Amino acid sequence: MTEPASQYLPKPSAVSTGELIDSEKYQEISNHSSHYYDYDRNGKLSKVKNDSFGQLANPEDMWEDKVLKIGIECMERYDGALKQLAAIEREELKEELEVLKKKNFQSVADRCMKEYAETYGEMPKDESWMFLEAEYYGTGEGKTLCLQMTQANPWGGDNGDFDRTLPYKPITTQAYRAVRGFHKLFGTWHLHGLRFHTREEFFKIYDNFLPAVLVKLKDQQCMLEYFSEIHFNFA
User: Fold this and answer.
1) pLDDT above 70 for 60
2) Which pTM value belongs to this model?
3) What share of the chain is helix, strand, coil (3-state, %, to 5)?
4) In whole angstroms, what is the distance from residue 202 CA to residue 95 CA?
5) Are 127 and 14 in the same domain?
6) 40 with 129, same domain?
7) How many helices and strands, by DSSP H and E, does the chain display?
8) Which among 180, 132, 123 has a CA at the least distance from the CA of 154?
9) How many CB atoms lie within 10 A of CB 189?
């Protein structure tokens, strides 16, 4: 007489308790199978993982595992392409930021030149130096004074200040180059209070902050670059 197949299946209570029918034949079958079938609480036959008796396999978890595996395989396969794309996007972003930075420098230079003209009149054409000053102070923070004397000479090279078709004619203004140099020395924050001065006014106001040897050169034309940052707080 043929034995019913149901005797090789766990009891319904095995779903929640993990208990198995005491059957050598069932053990032999289950040891050679990665899954077995069991009845859930509603009496429906379901496929169960062999390494976790009493826990029903969740189709959603199985699908998520499959999708995750596919995603990992795609990332590994296209890792080089993704890195290359990220590098291209970084370079494009750097180029966009560089354009915005140049516009900002020019805007600051235009504002400083306008203020200079309103205060001192037109800048002398024979003046080779630019005299820059930025002052910051706040309650409890003290005072910071940034000074610079520069000829703001144009840069050469691929990203320089010259047009390739006109190698001896700079495409940037001296005021722009002075602002760019000031930013490199003191950072973005001090551009907010940046001002240009005449030679006479610069030495008159900041005579006590400048080295004596520099003061002696104030009426001479020479190649010279000078900057200083002074911070003091009496709080």
Assistant:
1) no
2) 0.59
3) 45, 20, 35
4) 36
5) no
6) no
7) 7, 8
8) 180
9) 12
The verdict on residue 125 lying in a domain is yes
pLDDT greater than 60 at residue 56: no
What letter would DSSP give residue 7?
Answer: G
What's the rounded mean pLDDT across residues 38-49? 55
Q: What confidence score (pLDDT) does residue 45 get?
A: 52
- Considering the domain architecture, whether residues 148 and 211 belong to the same structural domain is answered as yes
CA distance 113 to 188: 18
Give dist(CA 138, CA 76) in Å, integer.
54
Identify whether 90 is part of a domain: no
On whether both 45 and 130 belong to a single domain, the answer is: no
Given a contact cutoff of 8 angstroms between Cβ atoms, the answer to whether 102 and 94 are in contact is no
pLDDT of residue 88: 78
Q: C-alpha distances in angstroms, 208 versus 31, 133, 202, 214? A: 93, 14, 11, 11
φ, ψ for residue 48, nearest 5 deg: -125, 140
Higher pLDDT, residue 176 or 4:
176
Are 129 and 216 contained in the same domain? yes
Specify if 83 maps to a domain.
Answer: no
Tell me, yes or no, whether 114 and 189 share the same domain.
yes
Instruction: Indicate the number of domains in the chain.
Output: 2
- For residues 92 and 6, give the distance between their C-alpha atoms in angstroms, rounded to a whole number: 68
| CA torsion angle 40 46 51 53 (round to 10) | 20
Could you list the residue range(s) of the whole structural domain that residue 19 is in?
1-57
Q: Which pLDDT belongs to residue 17?
A: 41
Look at 154 and 157; give whichever has higher pLDDT: 154
- Does some domain include residue 197? yes
CA angle 166, 168, 171 (to 5 degrees): 70
Would you place residue 143 in the very low, low, confident or very high pLDDT band (cuts 50, 70, 90)? confident
